[in-house]
Structures
1.
Amino acid sequence: MKTAAASKYDQIWDLDSLLPHPSRPEFPTLVESFRHGLEALAERSDHLPAIPGPAASAAAWGDFLQECERLEMLAVDLSAFIGCHAAADAGNKLFRQYEASLSALDPLRERIMTNLEFALRDASEADFQAFVQSHPVLRANEFFLIQRRKNARLRLPRGEELLAADLAVDGIHAWGRLYDRISGELRIQVMEKGEIVEKSAGQIRYDSPERTVRQNNFYAADKAWKTVADHCADALNHIAGTRQTLYKRLGLTDHLEAPLHRNRMQRSTLDAMWGAITRRKSMLLKYLSAKARLLGVDQLSWYDTQAPLPGTEEPGASAEISYDAGADLVCQTFSAFSPDFGEFAAMSLKQRWIEAENRSGKRQGAFCTGFATKKQSRVFMTFTNSHDNVSTLAHELGHAYHSWVLRDQPFFLQDYPMNLAETASTFAEAVLAEQRLAESKSRGEKLAILDHMLADAVAYLMNIHARFLFENRFHDERRDGELSAARLSEIMLAAQKEAYLDALVADGWYPDFWVSKLHFYISGLPFYNFPYTFGYLLSTGLYALSEGAGTEFPDQYRRLLVATGCQETEAAVKSTTGYDLSGPAFWNKSLDVIERRIEQFLALIEA
């Protein structure tokens, strides 16, 4: 009797080497020590020396900043640790309690940063520059201090700011946690081998080669999400309503000013990106039409856009791939781009930084999170044996590599905005896809790879554009009051039809998409979605640049990753690549790559 071969890579991550398990008595002791440290630092922050001040004040500021760094690193570790446990076991009440208790300490962290920012804001530019140069710790953190000084203009008066932080624990962030609980507990009934089984949202696949399976999964999931739509509408309304109340008090131009600031990005850059996409994405209609013909339908439905092509089951193009094979593929392709990148991926797998097991009870989605004091990351996903999962693995390891490259920088210069974070992850996907395409031998395999790449283009240029349009219009209407679940679905449907250029069949849209997409409910990050498109197009353009740069490009790429922690978005790109993101040239260079892939795809179909 044959026994199953042992897996090369463990699919369950190692968390025990990071911190004591939350059920052990050492963990609450650690949390309590952290709380005491925060309380002491918050009290200290209330009495920061004025700028300018006596010579001794620079040393006091330097000591304060070092203690702030120590506690923020611990805060990152604790939050990431509990977040990992809660994602892997969504129903565990202890983990949820710790999520809430750590969230309850956020007002102390907010108080510290609020006091720091107000102290920096009140100094003149000349005094601020002299202050930064007066101490080595301050000089090392100059960019961080400049950013915090800019942040101060997004702060309410001090008393109101601290009150808002206190109220946020049981307000906006509580609504976000409520959505996490609802989505984590949701069970979807689907038919498998003649039996009805229950699955969590993260286990439902829409990339099955069988259209009936995709269709049944889609309608089963939509039916389940509809049962919680009213609750999700409440959460979404209150998250957006809280933000808009704050924006009004701050006198911000609109609801995009804050997310642009968070991404260290100019509005002209966002407009240039969406403008280029709007002008040129009709080229994707040729791909969608061709894919519909290959799938044997007149027009695609929502659940067809990620479907594998029929007739591409030649060697290497199977819709099924094991975790071991997928992980090896990622390591090999990363190594072909850069030995350093490949060695990092192999280390992450061997040291069990990745949670990939397909089991019930996990939260949906995928993420990468960092542990600052350990200089390590952890990746969360659910691997269901698809090539799309391999891309997700590459995507999240791209995030982890970004943190790895920055690990020896000062902690406050390891923080990068989301749009540039998504550049690293989608660049990793591009490395994987382009290497596979170059090495593929058969027509079927090339078609499958190109189809996956173009399905990604549809996701970033159409799906995420629909999310952006939806959020924009929702926020516009939310100023006049709460919106019903039905109205939210109407806005989503209109956004999808505009973003997809009405390419899908009349009854093939997904109006309830806003209910199931957790990105809308992330209480700490407004307009979470457009950075994905930014990162995708930036990484696509970077990959195009790499084709002519030879062996020097991996080092240039590392320099860009380092720059993301200590420069504005536009400056980071211009200083390392020479391109101006506020104009159309770079975005068109990226879109040229997509157009070439469409031409390759259509040529292979006709061959």
2.
Amino acid sequence: MKYINVVIENKSRHTDNFFTYSTERDDIFVGAKVMVPFGPKDRPKEGFVFEITDNPECPIDKLKSILEVRENESLTEEIIKTVVWMKQKYAIKYFDGVRCFIPGGKPAKEGKQKEPYGDIKGKYTPPEALTAEQQSAVYEIGKAVDRSGSHDGSRSQEIFLLHGVTASGKTEVYMEIIEKCLKQGKTAIMLVPEISLTGQMIERFAGRFGKDKIAVMHSRLSQRERYDEWQRIHSGSAPIVIGARMGVFAPLQNIGVIILDEEHEATYKADMTPKYDTVEVAAKRLKYYDGVLLLGSATPSVTSYQRCRDGQYRLIELKERYNKTPLPEVEIADMRKELRNGNATIFSSRLYEAIEATLKEGKQVILLQNRRGYSNFVSCRQCGKVMKCPECGISLTYHRQSQAGEAMVCHYCGRRFPVPVKCPECGSRYIKYFGIGTQQVEEEVKKFFPDANTARLDLDSVKNRKDLDRILGEFSDKKTDILIGTQMVAKGLDFDSVGVVGVIAADVTLNIPDYRSAERTFQLITQVSGRAGRGGEQGLVIIQTYDPDNYALKAAASNDYEGFFRQETALRRFMDYPPFGDIVMVNLTSENEEVAASCAERCRIYMENAFNMAVSEGDKPAADAKILSPKVALNFKGKDSFRYYVLIKCPKGERNRCVYYLDNFSSVLLKDKVDCTVGIDVNPYSFF
């Protein structure tokens, strides 16, 4: 007789623990999916084995026996260990972690299976001749792959940051490393930041490795597609998984490498429970298999680059484009001067002339106007002054119809400020609420360039994959002259006829209420700039802004990542922002607003006492932790419920302890039967 501790599929936090059952099966294993009797009526429930023991802590005569084992839907010991780690790391329920790894849905009937991306066959493309820089990168990363697989825990984990300029051939490096893993009997996960990019990645990989070796994982698959793909991975018939962030949970074994392309993208941080960081989960999984983590980007995140400086990651650089074409020429257009010269349109005279000349040459144009992450901000059109919070240093958001009337609000600390009649910097009355969308850009393009064929690429125009393929296909076939879009046009697109890229309003991302606004602006402009001049001729990029002296814009224009990094980290270090500290957002949600507000204040007091107690007991000092007063979540749209939040600025190294305290606080509310849900988000990408 064996005794197993099982986690039951149940949404209640009251049942978020182990339940012990007995079994006579000798082949039971950690990760097995079992059916067990549960509750007073012994209804069959699904569960997963987390522990096997010979000495249960409860009376043996009261234990119930399992009903069934479903091996074809079982998990592995490595996955179970990862789930336990996720519970501790993100203060989630056990089954919140389990759900990330299980397929959901039901199998299709025999002969009714539908292959995702079945229209993509791929044709064999022999490996391209590598440049000297690519050869060096493959050699260094390949040595780590050769060293991996010891499974004895003797080696420190190897994580690489591949910093390569746009069109430097990072994807070819990825494929070389995956090919090495397959030859050694290992598996691989290839992640992209957007679902829209999976199609072209599958096409390239299918040509190299064969479509039968590739499985797909992302949230837009149907339930049956997701189940069937999960089974292909689980059975070992598909050793390569391509997908968006959820692909990190693929049920592969013996993982040799996990690759995150465009590792800087915010989409790798989940915004729904569990709010995991894909890089962290990937590193945890690979630790078990002694595998290699490869992060690639033309614009690495400040956190990743700092980790290279700290010796946590190994930096490999690709400084030249694979076709030796020089990087595009980048110009900054000062929209303040345009306004003073009587030009009130969305096009600077320089951008207008460049578009006109490019169209006459028969080349194409990409115009970026980013709406994702867009938030209104208040600025002076005379001097470029942006109204910012004096406490937090981030731009203020204009609220026209808030509970307390018209105001500018800081979404970090919650402070409110009156909307100025005059600019506090220059006294001008040109105070405006800034914001232009892609639809307005499209209208203006059609007005100024009526003979050009235009298309728009954003979430409004792309409802499904067919829309995306059609828009990109027509642009690739040169049926479209001008492509207008959000950041969707900045990532991974490879067209050799783009002569000009225009950034309509760089200020949209530069002034979002987020401490990462300068970083995200630098990344977005650098990425979209890389769409120009990918053929044989140098391209041109024009950045329009009301703040031409901003360090992020100037660094992007000169492709000076190091210069940007130095200035950005100086500011981050001073403000204790990541990577020099952590920001923990605690969301408290209830159907009763008074309960939500009181729990938020109770949380603040609890956390202050917890940190102070740790100091008084001689634990590692945490007195520098700053716990801000609770604020109402103004943009929370939960139906019939209310949300307050508490922001905690944790010194470096205090994050795990902070999450531990918050998990305990959540347990206290549960014990006291308080109807309030506690959500924890570490270093969130949205504070709205």
3.
Amino acid sequence: MITYLQVENLSKYWGELALFDGISFSVSEGQKVAMIAKNGAGKSTLMDIIAGLETPDTGKTSLSNHVSIGYLRQNPDLNPEDTVLEAAFNSTGELIQTVKNYEKALENHDPKILGAAIERMNVLNAWDFELRIKQILTQLKITDVNQQIKFLSGGQKKRVALAHILIDEPDFLILDEPTNHLDLEMIEWLEKYLEKAKCTLFMVTHDRYFLDRVCNEILELEDNTIYKYKGNYSYFLEKREERIQAMNAEIDRAKNLFRTELEWLRRMPQARSHKSKYRTENAYKLQEKASQRRVEDEVELTIQGKRLGSKILNINNISKALGDVVILDKFSYKFARLEKIGIIGKNGSGKSTVLNMLTGSVQPDSGTIDVGETISFGYYRQDGITFNPGDRVIDIIKEIAEVIDLGNGNRMTASQFLNYFLFPPDTQYNMVEKLSGGEKRRLYLCTVLMRNPNFLILDEPTNDLDIVTLNVLEEYLRSFQGCAIVVSHDRFFMDKIVDHLFVFEGDGQIKDFPGNYSDYRDWVEEKEKEQRNPEKRDKAVKPRQEKEFVRKLTYNEKRELEQLEKDISLLEEEKAMIETEMNSGNSPSEKLVIMAQRHGEIRIILDDKEMRWLELSEIETQK
């Protein structure tokens, strides 16, 4: 088996900060390898070093001379004056050059050159190449091939660069976050393309379904060590957990042994001359092992959020058009408590515009948006990062709040909050300019969440975030006691978080789908099968129509729902008053006991009433 890439003792520093130090690994023919590491570990820098665009401080990389290589950078470097077609065909690959020579010979009407070009086209089987190119461009939604690169968005440039790589059909693909800025349809196409392709692949991606279905080996870069897993993402998760448990057990054993050896080392001075040199050296080795950072279980962070009132957010017949493109056409919806909605749709379908309308920064052409008095929005925008490069991480957070109120009397300092979102104390005093793109996005996420909103709007929060951060964010959102709207192309993330989907179907139409993204894809595939099989479709239509029934609240249930909202509000106020008095430190012990008992009673009553409220409100929102 040919080794396509060899990395030996590679190190790269940014000032005193080590991005990676002394790492080694290889990629061989036929392997489809992904690298997983935290933001700031230098993944993109490593990719640039492999491609020869940067130099390492120590070590070396070797690429096979006998294979063609295609490298997709996270932020592609394209000539702004080129057209889309010129950028896509800007290659030295033999196949593309053969097609270019053939087309040039046709233009010049030179029979001798044309004959040689036709012969070469036959040898390389290049006659269907134009068709393959058009298929790739179409799948990546590249239609205006004469548009200049300088007029494209970041996502469009990424797609043109990806088309350029795939058209060339290299033996070895090196891809840095290939799914960023692609919509779900394109991601699924690329996933199937790479799954079937016979190329060798080395990539960095945070898309966990992509990892699971495309890769057969995963490299994890952690603490300047490469861990290898011969399997897909599911296998990686299983074996990584086993590795962490084994490492923690080893550290615990080392700590216990070191306590014994330390006691031995501290014996009276006259005994030191008789100490075994081997045992002394072994004690220092144990000290080094025992001092290693123990990998702890993830911290559970539950932020109660500001109280939600009876009215959340009501959308009444809103319409919006941008030029000739209709974004919304008389759309209405009434949000319920604790609802988590995912939004999916093609790029350019107006998802971000709708989010801006909900928060009031963009006005609808017609209709109204009625926001409840208790609603406090937390809005994470795609383009919301505006930090001063010279500011320190901790200062940015402290400018917002020194202490974060988690609810129920719990508080967290700015430093503790940063630590939860994977900014350890030694990085909290770094300047923003030293952060990677993913770390800046993580910091921006912290500034949104720490304001304690009760209605979160997250527009592509998963872009550029590493898998560890995504897991933290997912756990945060699962325990979030408020409403959330999420726009994301990360299918794994959507499946874990959302209750149902708003599907932007085009022409201003939005479908409210009751399920997560995988449920939706299964439904779409079933519909496509029915379209291909008319007999099955006709048989399926009538039963589905007969089953359609919407349960409505009875008169007594409506009155019960109204009373529950009043009761819950009063109980929350009483609970807050008790917590304030208990935390004041001014109450005598006898009164504290009584208040603690009442506090426990209120929590039990609230749980029952909120559960019943949820049951009734779910029926109410089906209307």
4.
Amino acid sequence: MSDEKTSASASGEKPCPECGELVRPGLVRCWNCGAFMHRSLEQKYLEMQAAPKKIYFSPLPADADIHALGEDILEDADADGDADEDDFVLSPQGYVPQTHQDAVADRKAAADAKAAPQPSEAAPGGKPSADAPPTGDAPPAVSHSVATGGDALLEIAMREELESRKRKKTRKLTGGARTASGFIIFCPYGCNIEVKEQHRGMSGKCPKCRAPFLVPVDPPDYSVSKKEAAEEESKQAAGAPGGFATWLTGQHVHTVNPLKLKLKTDSLLKDFVEKDFAFSPEKLLIVSLAKKSGGLFGGGDKKKSDAREAVTAHLREGKPLEELQGVEKLIFTADEVRQMRIVQPASSRMDSMFHGVAVFGDHRIAVQLPVNEGDPQFVSFGLMQFREFSNALAKNYGIERFGADLGIPLSDEVTTLKCHYTDTPIKALKNVEWYKADSASPTVLAGWKCESCGLAVSEDARKKEKLGGANAKGLAKAVCPKCKKKFGEHPQYTLQASAGTPSLQEPSGSGTSGAGATAETAAT
């Protein structure tokens, strides 16, 4: 580097006082950092910037004509032989072209002539005047095209603007337009492409700009589907016994005596009576199917199905609910139903009626029924039963996402992990404790996850690679194949119904792929 500096300085180059780069002789400023090569020049430049040049204005003579001055400027510009055809000269402020002045003056003169009294065309002797034209009015001083040139141009411009606005309003996109053999789509850069119906869902490249594009599938007609769904619901409601189109059978209803309540986990889990819930937009009917002697459903040996059939037959005949005999029933209006609230789980222990103790069972949901005579009543659910109950409230009473603000999973959510050995996806359930506590949603072991690096291994691949032994008892102390730390024991579960669902990604075969677990959240 020193040799290069020496050879450069020998050629006359000088180092910059700021950055040290070599600068050719004669340059005022450094080509690299812009600093001045001489301090005196820099000082002079700063003084010039601090004291800008003053602007002097000369007074305009009193008899000066600015229009004539503008014409002189234009004549000088035309007389200049060096001027090109495309050059233009700025006119002084307030300058008006002479042709336009003549046109305005001519129109004004014509208007004054029409307003003035017309002299007689004949001389006193009855002979026509020698100065008067033979026939017609006096010819104008300028042609009509020149006199009305400005108005005509303005009218044309306004008409074009109006047509342009009309075109913008009536413009229609051609995307999706039908052709003889298919329809039109757009590539990402706006090129029109004609594709066929059998190309829907496929990808290709634009023949003009080579940009990749995807042919859209035929979108469903949501308006028709919603209309059909509404009609189907109305038909079901019309044909439902008593207008109760939604029925939930075998719900656990608990009658709680506050004086005898024990604040202990699962203390009320088995203390319930099975009842059926019937929903209509106006009412909620709760019917007890407990065995009773005598009455309409007399005979203690009556089956629950027979009791339900008797209730539906009574409603189908259009009889009032008050005449329903032999069963315990509760009837709530829609406004009373909207007063129901969830007591388990609670947002906090301070807001909990049972001080945060899961008296109805761990990971179960309990809802307090509207206040009635006697001890308070509650209905408890597993996760799947509560989802049906929440959907019935939304459908009949407009109570949307009942319980979502308390952390209750109203829909299945999974995290998709990729197996380290086979690249097959592992659909690991979120909030798996809710599913394991509900017998209606059986889960199966899908895989395992490393506690250090998050590496995922499917259960089938773990057995094949014998990671943690044959039955995974030693998995907690096993060495992770990626981070070489303790693997840990973190099982991943999935729903039994979706355990055998085929994946869009085929396995790449056995053997180590080297890819870690890629987390991808999706809602099912």
